[in-house]
Amino acid sequence: GGSLVSTGNLGDVMKESTQIAYTFAKSFLLDRDPLNNFFESTNIHLHVPEGAIPKDGPSAGCTIVTALLSLAMDTPARQDTAMTGEVSLTGKILPVGGIKEKTLAAKRADVKHLILPEENRKDYEDLQDFIREGLEVHFARHYSDVFAAVFDEGEGGGGGGGLKDDKAHEIDEQVQ
Q1: pLDDT tens digit string along 113-139?
Q2: Residue 160: its pLDDT value, please?
Q3: DSSP 56-114
Q4: pTM reported for the whole predicted model
Q5: Percent of the chain scored above 90 by pLDDT?
Q6: Is 70 an active-site residue?
């Protein structure tokens, strides 16, 4: 059967987060496409490269689920998107810290589409207007909200290449 190996500069919290993301992605895909046996037949190596900022938090959960599903479905996720949010085993998107810093990082990278936890809405709305200007923001309660924003054609998702090309062998969250 398939498995997940995580390597790189990962603290204990992020190692746990990658396991939860993998478990949830398998379940989500099974519900959505029972004939897709990608996770049962594929060994995945998720590597988080060493960076200036050590990664030890759950904030990448929804990003890792998205990359895994993109790989499993052989479908690229919307490319002009940055996201953050812890994901639970049931797919609930939980709040995270650093919304101002993550929003500013997305703007610096010229990313216009953000996905944030619904429970962080007030944090985002409290930001100065010049920070929020020009951004399209989706607030997610459950991973299905994230999925709709990045994969469903009717929601402006899908297309754009990228993850499909490199098969998401290295997943690096753009806004962490």
Answers
A1: 999 999 999 999 999 999 999 999 999
A2: 35
A3: -SSTTHHHHHHHHHHHHHT-PPPSSEEE--EE-TT-BEEP-S-HHHHHHHHHHTT--EE
A4: 0.84
A5: 71
A6: no
List the catalytic residue out of 6, 55, 70, 102.
102
Paired residues of 140 in beta bridges? 117
Question: Over the range 108-139, which residues count as b (16 or more CB within 10 Å of their CB) and which as e?
Answer: eeebebbbbbbbbeebbeeeeeeeeeebebbb
Catalytic residue among 55, 59, 70, 107: 59
Q: How confident is the model at residue 153 (pLDDT cuts 50, 70, 90)?
A: low
Euclidean distance between CA atoms 140 and 92, whole angstroms: 9
For residue 42, give Cα distances in angstroms to 1, 4, 26: 7, 9, 11
Token pair for 80: 């002009």
